[in-house]
Amino acid sequence: EVQLVQSGAEVKKPGESLKISCKGSGYSFTSYWIGWVRQMPGKGLEWMGIIYPGDSDTRYSPSFQGQVTISADKSISTAYLQWSSLKASDTAMYYCARQDFDTLTPDYWGQGTLVTVSS
Amino acid sequence: QSALTQPASVSGSPGQSITISCTGTSSDVGSYNLVSWYQQHPGKAPKLMIYEVSKRPSGVSNRFSGSKSGNTASLTISGLQAEDEADYYCCSYAGSSTYVVFGGGTKLTVL
Question: What pLDDT, on a 0 to 100 scale, did the predictor assign at position B97?
């Protein structure tokens, strides 16, 4: 069974750094992209970027380029999303999703990590 | 503003059929047969319902179907049931610089 398990909810202050995780199991972690998707409170889904754990090839949405960093550690089947300096506007639910190698279609999703940034 | 345009809301009575549209451009929906649809219940993660325009993953009811014409994709749900009430999002491949785009989402209400 394919599973993506994300790290728990975080409460941070503006300016702090953060790294959240997404651990894959039940499939070959190095054969699919892992993507990250933001959902701000009461809003829709926004695609942020992807990483291919097989070779760490990383692509970003133009809207998120330079705002976040996506990485992965294939030895522990885990992908990461990190911020160096959080803003209140980063408050959102963040989902990871497995994405097909060829079509980039997100198929399996993690349960989400709620990030709250407040002073 | 989302890259793909969906109606904010649609509604229907149990047993009826509804269709949700998803309008993109010649750079995304119109150029690739790589449109997918997701169902999201409140407080839950999205669930893949349709991929590659009209294919259903294993376990998804055949009441859900997809199609595409030009720059517009559509999701049709037939025989509406109470449990279909949710938010629905379309998604498309958008080429090698933008990669993936989502629609703004449509709230389906089963009356």
Answer: 87
